[in-house]
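FIELD: query
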Amino acid sequence: MVFAEGCFGLFTSKVAASYLRYRPERCLAVIDSAQAGKRVQDVIGYGGDIPVVADIEQALAFGPEVLFIGKGLHSAQLPPGWKEPIRTAMQRGLHVINSIHFRLHADPDLAKAASEAGITVWETKEPVPLELNKARVLELDCFVVHTCGSDSNIGKKTAALEITHEANRRGIRTGFAATGQTGMLISGTGIVVDCIPSDFVAGAAERVVLDAAVGNDWVVLEGQGSLNHIGASGIALALLHGGLPHALIFCHRLGLERTKVWNTKIRPLPELIGLNEALTVFERPAKVVAISVNSAGLSDEAYRHEVQVLQEQTGLPVVDPCRDGAGLLVDALLAYQQTLGMLQPAGETMQ
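FIELD: result
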């Protein structure tokens, strides 16, 4: 079951919303007293009839085995009111997947409850062994794609997953390189880079690309933050340099004019696209080949209009992969791969 008390929503509980898009079959219920009585579909627009319930006791009636904390936080503190439901879940024998920076085992009461119940707590933000970037990605034969964007929480992970699925559907062996807890939970592999000291984030990006490249023709590296985001520019740059992509997919939420947390003005997209291209390393300058947009909340007519405007502004293909599929993005990547003179994967098809 997913724990999203007081925050369940498409943009207010990104971890839960993303997990429910790609793994709804693994979820029995969502806990959020503010949305209790609704279906997941009613709240975020997909997810079907999974119920939203008021508290842990109601959720336990569905027989869950795991409590999944479905919100990533910008704070290292446990939110008020969360401790007791989490402790109750532990005492009832549920394993816990923790997606926040606060380590549950750092709380004596929660550590005791977990120990006495014999359950496992997976701290997804527990640091991994640290490595410096050594530019080993340059030695790969893989075509490396990276999703960058205009803000945090706008669809970089979704774009990366949709590209991965579409490329594999066409017979292009493609690995997804997860850099956040949700992507890691969906794919089963990756590193949560926002818990790593800054000197080693580029090395972590290198590591996930190297791992995802095994047996694959393409690697799609999940983006985090953005270069114009005053709170998350460092991690965006480290991924860009550690991942050493050939091509970039620029991600943007339609209608967004200011960053959501720090409320800074978002510069025109052609300017941001140029910034991302300029900051790729000189050994492998990368190019933005298409734009993936998040059009949640827009009518079809408004979406089509905004897409046309962006196409005229940038000269690039523009699509919401959740509305129209990722075919246009994969086509743009294949076309750019050809201009680089790279060998085409045997199964590739243009559509």
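FIELD: remark
The mean pLDDT is 94.
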